[in-house]
Amino acid sequence: MTASFSASSVPASPASVPQAGSPVAARRALPDAPLLVAARGGTPSRTPVWFMRQAGRSLPEYRSVREGVPMLQSCFDPALLAEITMQPVRRHGVDAAILFSDIVVPLYAAGLAIDIVPGTGPVVAHPVRSAADVDAVPELEAEQVRPITDGIGLLLRELGQTPLIGFAGAPFTLASYLIEGGPSRNHEHTKALMHAEPELWHRLASRLADVTATFLTAQLEAGVDAVQLFDSWAGALSERDYREFVLPHSTRVLSAVAEYDVPRIHFGVGTGELLPAMREAGADVVGVDWRVPLDEAARRLRASGESEPVVQGNLDPALLMASWPVIEAEVRRIAAEGREAAGHVFNLGHGVLPETDPEVLTRVVELVHSL
């Protein structure tokens, strides 16, 4: 049995979170930041590069500061959150920081009994599979993520001209964790509920869209410069199911933050067949995993929007274990394919693996910048 954290155990922080729709005093002007220029389809001074899971287990300094601190507790410690987020910026010279957090953080903050178990991932104490379970899923209030927005305030004072990306999990992926009770290979309970009780599914997904939108809005009000919506498990779905059961709710989330006029990145794993639909949800930048070449991704995406597509990706993270000549050739290939889109943000096709040598990541950043 795993212990469950309670959001009420998170220490309160003295600062307050601005309410949605209020002026964003913390918004920075970063007109020349390569990430933001590329994300808007402009011509940056260099190809921007950052890595999903760049702040994490591949860094010895991360393991040092996290020693003895549970994952969720570290996400709600403003100073620790800021330190972990800054580590890859200092070490690698990446063109963006991404807020150190986890997909289930807003669910935990709202009061759900959920834990992140080492070696397993998020584990839900009581899976959501009935109407009563759905009705019991709490709403999220901005005050419940106040320690996180306090951490953003600390980051903005240290980042200088480096943009900060906020992030959240998309409704489908959050729902999958809640319904399955944890990570799943086949998502069988999720798909069964989707098709057998579509009204109940949409009720749950709508509630989770509200949670996600509130979490992203709180980050934007605190001053993040871009946001990424992770739909980690959407690749398990057919395009038909995605459009019927997922697209309306992801669209609601991305529409809810459109007024902030910051780049909105949308990423999923194994979503090659879903790329046009994911762009239709409201993405300014579509993340592509390593299974689809970026030039092919750009071709598919042109059919789903009036403007030219911007892509992010897509080096296979496993190849970072190869020899440098292999890595260099892959980086050069991906950079060349990315030029077929209106903009390209260099990244991995998924997150940095824990066994990755940090020096290799630094060399990749230097190579991308040299191109």
TrEMBL record:
It is found in: Cytoplasm. It is an enzyme of class 4 (lyase). GO terms for biological process: protoporphyrinogen IX biosynthetic process. The gene is hemE. Belongs to the uroporphyrinogen decarboxylase family. Keywords: Cytoplasm, Decarboxylase, Lyase, Porphyrin biosynthesis. Substrate binds at R53, Q54, A55, G56, R57, D102, Y177, S232, H350. It catalyses: uroporphyrinogen III + 4 H(+) = coproporphyrinogen III + 4 CO2. Its main location: cytoplasm. One of its GO terms (molecular function) is uroporphyrinogen decarboxylase activity. Residues 48-57, 165-181 form the Uroporphyrinogen decarboxylase (URO-D) domain. GO terms for cellular component: cytosol. Transmembrane segments: none annotated. It comes from the Bacteria. CDD domains: URO-D. This is Uroporphyrinogen decarboxylase. Catalyzes the decarboxylation of four acetate groups of uroporphyrinogen-III to yield coproporphyrinogen-III. Homodimer. Pathway: Porphyrin-containing compound metabolism; protoporphyrin-IX biosynthesis; coproporphyrinogen-III from 5-aminolevulinate: step 4/4. InterPro entries: UROD/MetE-like_sf, Uroporphyrinogen_deCO2ase_HemE, Uroporphyrinogen_deCOase.
